[in-house]
Amino acid sequence: MRGRSLAATLALAFGVTTLAVFVLVGSFLYLALDKQIKAQDDLDIVLAARHARRLVEELDASNGIREHGDRLTSIVLGNEAMSMEVFGPDGHMAIEHNAGETFATQGGAANGATSAASNAPDDSVALNSASETGTANDLHDPGETAEAGGVETIAALPPLTRIAATARITDVDIGNWTGRNGAPIRGILADARLHNGDTATVLIARNMSDRWRLLDRYRDKLNLAGAAGVILAMLLSYLLIRAALRPLRDIAASAGLVTVNRLNTRITVARVPSELEALVNALNAMLERVEHGFQRLSRFTADLAHDMRTPISNMRGAAEVALARPRSTDEYESLLASSLEECDRLSRMIENVLFLARAEHPQFVKHMRAFEAGQELTRIAEYFEGIADDAHVRVQVTGAATLTADLELFRRAVSNLLANAIRYTPSGGEIGLDVRASADAVRVTVSNQGQPIAAEHLDRIFDRFYRVDPSRSSLPSSGMSQGSTGSTGLGLAIVRTIMELHGGTVHAESDAQSTRFVLTFRRV
């Protein structure tokens, strides 16, 4: 099943992210504008109420309210949304301006009244349904509405907090109610003390419908701009991501050129982004390992076929010679013995190949334990004592150290090196097994006298089926046990594999005095 497009997925994710950002930013701007508008309008209402109170307080008596009505209403002139009503000491309306849309005609109560009574002095009067001049039904009786559209008495006003004449007018005293046609209204009701001691009441209100319409238009524009921005962001991000992913398509095209016959091909992409440079390097390194592994496998297969062909050809040739004419019992027994030796050689070769295959598997199990390496070297030397005597060589063990490793693999590695040393040590020579411990590693050295190995062979003698002298491949196994490799050409390769399993190394040194194989086990 084909997966989703990465470019489309990233573009969608970017679009969703952009939408979320637009929603957050738009909401913030909308709320900020609403708050700023409301704060400015509240300031206008408070300033108008304070100014109106000062003007009323300059009057001597209530009859001066009508006489100076133009002066009082001039406070709200020029702003069609602002309205004013001034009530005399008897609670009846004395003057009004633009109050037609201020009050509800459908019995609508206030949306909410700001409870600032706690801030007013004790002589402030709160309007409620039980006021001295009327009941709750009287508050919104359309019959009490003035011809100009206002209300004739304070009792018909919405339930606002009435600020006492001695209290300071602030924005916390502003109340909310619903006017005609559901228009939102905000206003302040405040008392003013005349010179003769009577109290007049001033109502300053503002119709907020224009502000609501402004905010609605602003919200609609934000929604439209946000939707367009999201669509544009998704489109542009898709195109940009497609362009940014072009190197990946080039990498895929370059990788498609790699075949079995072209393993030397490497991924080459012009102007690789820094984020993909590590990927390209890793893929090229992987291809290099695959090429080396394939080449090694090809050489291994060819060498294995060549080495297995030799004992099979020997057995076939001996059998053909024996069948050419009648033979004696001794000759047939000699033929069977020779065939059995070749079969043993094949068995050892197959066993070693299987061991190498298992050892390269990631789940190969090692049984690590601590043991005395010097004692194990002595046991191995005693095991090879008979073979060494037949080859007329001596095995000398020196040193002592505690080593943590897989004991069976350790024995196999040392046995392979010792068998190899016995095979190439001249008669009367000496083989040394030595173990030494340092601060960071334990080193086991197998040394033998004999012809030195050329420097160009030292790095390759641990390869599978590699021999310094191919003519020695047919040397007899000298009765070595199954743990040794005879002349199969895999002994040193097994040693290197065992050391790799332990995280250690093996290397060879050779000069005119001796040839030395050094196993290095690093301390953990």
UniProtKB/TrEMBL annotation:
- Which ranges carry the HAMP domain? 242-295
Q: Where in the cell is it found?
A: Cell inner membrane; Membrane
**Known catalysed reaction(s)?**
ATP + protein L-histidine = ADP + protein N-phospho-L-histidine
- Using the record for this protein, list the coiled-coil segments as residue ranges, or answer none: none
Q: Report biased composition (Polar residues) as residue ranges.
A: 126-136
Q: Residue limits of the Histidine kinase domain?
A: 303-524
- Composition bias (Low complexity) maps to 107-120
Which keywords has UniProt assigned to this entry? ATP-binding, Cell inner membrane, Cell membrane, Kinase, Membrane, Nucleotide-binding, Phosphoprotein, Transferase, Transmembrane, Transmembrane helix, Two-component regulatory system
| Region (Disordered), start-end ranges | 107-143
Segments traversing the membrane: 6-33, 222-241
Q: What is its EC number?
A: 2.7.13.3
Q: Name the enzyme's class.
A: transferase
- Know the name of this protein? Sensor protein
What does the record give as the organism's lineage?
Bacteria, Pseudomonadati, Pseudomonadota, Betaproteobacteria, Burkholderiales
